[in-house]
Amino acid sequence: MSAPNTISEQLVKEDQPKSVALPRGIRLLKGITIPVILILSCEILVRNGVIEPYLLPAPSSLWQSLTELAEGDLWQHLWASSWRVFLGFGIGIGLGLVFAILVGLNRHAEDFLEPTFSAIKSIPSLAWIPLLLLWLGIDEGSKITLIAIGAFFPTYTNTVAAIQGVDRKLIEVARVYRLKYWQQIHQIVLPAASPGILTGLRNSLSLSWMFMIAAELIAATQGIGYLLSDGRETSRPDIVIIAIILLAVLGKITDSIMKLFEHRLLRWRDVIKKS
């Protein structure tokens, strides 16, 4: 989705109050305050015997466990989970965008597809696993499909809402300028709907990590979900906590990348606000 042309730039102006940006260092300190407090609290409680180490190991002892995992097959687990997420995410958002654009722009398509998609969207992720295992077995196909299902619906829902929420006045002005149908979509509808679409993509990425864990907890020999399951079965809370931390870090990194991508694509909004 490229930056909008002159017509939409003039018509999508938003009047919002300007906020004062805090220095980056202060924002970073605020962001790590709660994690630091939680880590110190856990360390104190475990060291003083309030919490048993077999239930929650001291944060200071996790480094040794992480080192042991890193010397082993930790990187293979990270790679296995990451490529499953990215492949399933790509398939899910691709299909989500196609169907969303079709439903958002065509009333007849909405009448046919929306009831079915609304019903399927209500099915919990765990309910898909037995069916996918029966159809696709325990190989990668079932895991990728489950992740794609998780990525599909946030993209589809947000894109449909964003397209249908485009101001009709923009379309009317486009017709005044005698833009063709596909020009209206490319130059008016998609740029105006891009904030909602990108929000859907970020939500889809977040759900892709969640669905990946659901898939790997059931049937996997590698991945972060496998580490979680293995740590539970071997009574190793340190491995479970490390797996959770790794999942949080990977999710945060990928979300930050998506946020930068979103900011880059929506730079035209800052230009409009300043004009």
TrEMBL record:
Tell me which GO cellular component terms the UniProt record holds: plasma membrane
Q: Which domain of life is it from?
A: Bacteria
- InterPro entries referenced in this protein's UniProt entry, alphabetically: MetI-like (IPR000515), MetI-like_sf (IPR035906)
Show the stretches that span the lipid bilayer: 28-46, 83-105, 117-138, 144-163, 207-227, 239-261
Ranges of residues in domain ABC transmembrane type-1: 78-258
Membrane topology according to the record: Multi-pass membrane protein
Locations listed in the record: Cell membrane
Fetch the SUPFAM superfamilies from UniProt: MetI-like
**Predominant localisation class:** membrane
Pfam families reported for this sequence: BPD_transp_1 (PF00528)
One of its GO biological process terms is: alkanesulfonate transmembrane transport
Signal peptide bounds: none
Kindly state which keywords UniProt assigns to this record, in alphabetical order.
Cell membrane, Membrane, Transmembrane, Transmembrane helix, Transport
Q: Which family does it belong to?
A: Belongs to the binding-protein-dependent transport system permease family.
Q: Which PANTHER family match?
A: ABC TRANSPORTER PERMEASE PROTEIN, ALKANE SULFONATE ABC TRANSPORTER-RELATED, MEMBRANE SUBUNIT
Specify the protein name: ABC transmembrane type-1 domain-containing protein
- Species whose genome carries this gene: Acinetobacter schindleri NIPH 900
